[in-house]
Predict the 3D structure of the following.
Amino acid sequence: MINDPAVTDYLAGLEPEPDALLAEMRAHGDRDRIPIVEHVTGGLLETLATATGAKRAVEVGTAIGVSTLHLSRGGAHVTSFEVDPERYEAAKEYLKRGGFEPDLRLQDATEGLASLEPGSFDLGFIDGPKAGYGTHLDQIVGLLRPGGLLLVDNVLMSGGAATGEPTDQWSEESVALIRDFNADLKARDDLRATFLAVGDGVALAVRQ
Ligand SMILES: C[S@@+](CC[C@H](N)C(=O)[O-])C[C@H]1O[C@@H](n2cnc3c(N)ncnc32)[C@H](O)[C@@H]1O
């Protein structure tokens, strides 16, 4: 939790309950200990995709498709990368049941992002391996059109980003990495970035 627990609980309580499909996916994630976006973060993704009218989104880290489902429900056709075959298959099935056919790719994101057309995406979401955040940032900035929106999850790492200390969920190495990442993100002159204390911390940046 990155906020006062009472505030976190209050905001979580305001979020509508997941529908049956989303509830099943979230239960799957809990059961198999698959890291997926917090429910409030999913709501944020859906709202931002809707608000920006994003038609094409690119995502790093599909897992079983929870964030992909939110972006799809926000109106975006999502191209998403995952390296775990079981998770990829589960995501495909869930998204199909949800009425969507995103472009899910069982492929290393660094490799896959390099094959996409520069400037052709309205929205990018980075939620893959933390060691790849810097590389994926450079790649996704190149894929966004001017005015396109970049979102990045876990930028506050349960508060570790602020304290510089490891947490139950995040190692010292990950915390050091995200602190450097956040500083780099803010310093870039091709992005206008800001940070939201939602879920585990979400960075939001507009491509200049
Ligand atoms: C935090 S999870 C993604 C959660 C998902 N965005 C959601 O909230 O529903 C990160 C995922 O990235 C995948 N991953 C790890 N290395 C990867 C790589 N090199 N390319 C693409 N995906 C990768 C992991 O298997 C894992 O499922």
